[in-house]
Amino acid sequence: MLIDIKKYTIIVLIIIGFTIAIPISLFAKDAKPNVIHSDYLSRADYAGIDLPIKINDFNLGIVTDYRRKNPGLGVSVSYLHTEYTTTIYFYDNNSKFIPSRIDLNNPQHITLLLQPDISSSLEIKELVKRGVYSKVKEKGVNGSPKNTGIFTCSGYDIEKNKTDFDSYLCLTMHNNKFIKVRMSMPARKDSTKIVSDFLNEFYKNFK
Fold first, then answer.
1. What is the CA 205 to chain-centroid distance, rounded?
2. Which of 82, 199, 93 is nearest to 145 (CA)?
3. Are the C-beta atoms of 50 and 41 separated by less than 8 Å?
4. Domain range summary for the chain, segments of one domain joined by +
């Protein structure tokens, strides 16, 4: 019996193509580009940290470069989640006094951290004045994430569009840069644990 090689070759190629397409379609939804390998950004822009594709349930997202506006503003990278918004900022604020490693027992280091903390508090108050937020209330020590390693955190209860949000601001210094993590989510009881888990997983990438 003669076999039509051409016919069966086409059938085999279709089967192989379909087999490859299935896993690609399954994983494409979660795939995110590793934007750390941008043409004009290097590891130094991220305080020498290799940004992972995923941090827990968060996927690496968009990188924004603020340095054209002001060199001291640095860059930011977002990590995307269906419910939460997380942005990590890497910048030096044109300061030459940021240490390579933070010591939370050093009063001078704590004083340095107050600069971006005060600045961020003023930003939040400005958003209230502009009507972006209806209400803002500081959570205080008891409402801040615990076990956050080298990060110091503050939390806010925010009302926006008649919806309550938990918003957190966590700061540290590494390789002569400030690192600020801002995370917001609809108000929930385990929000502080979500922040702590994210920070501890993120810290594993510090070098």
1. 13
2. 199
3. no
4. 34-203
What are the 10-residue block averages of pLDDT along the chain, 207 residues in total?
40 34 30 43 82 91 88 91 90 89 86 72 75 80 78 88 89 93 92 94 88
CA neighbor of 156 nearest in space, from 166, 148, 164, 146:
166
162 contacts 134 by C-beta, under 8 angstroms: yes
Measured CA to CA, the distance from residue 155 to residue 93 in angstroms comes to 23
Please, which residues bridge with residue 138 across strands? 156
Please tell me the total number of residues recorded for the chain in this structure: 207
Residue 167 CA, distance from chain mean position: 13
Domain 34-203: give its CATH architecture: 3-Layer(aba) Sandwich (3.40)
